[in-house]
Predict the 3D structure of the following.
Amino acid sequence: MPKKIVYSVIGIIIISFFLYLISYLLILRSEPYKIARQFIMYNPSVNSNIGHVNNIRLNYFGYSLKYTGPYGNAKFSFYVVGEKGQKQVYITLKKETGNWEVEKAYLVMWKETSINLMNSGGNIGK
């Protein structure tokens, strides 16, 4: 392969990596991300199933954020570590009239078993 093509491919990979890194860091500062983290931290079902939450990490490719003006939606996939173990949490938020609200939230217990966190009294972002 000619050197010009190799350098072009390497350049594209490096630029893509930095664009991804910037978008990931911006997501961590977003309002829906902060609301989703609070929802997990204070949700009774999360605490009863994995214990006190010690760490919450956004999965590297576990997010989608789209909004225009006062409307939008966000989806997050979190890796949550508690005193009793670690699990995945999936959260969907919706923005209407400028306010983000948790629309759906699930704690994945095993491959095909999940708990609906909206039924457990966690009302952050509502």
About this structure: The CA atoms of residues 52 and 82 lie 5 Å apart. Confidence is low (pLDDT under 50) at residues 122-126. Strands lie at 53-68, 71-82, 85-96, 99-110, 113-116. DSSP finds three helices and five strands in the chain.
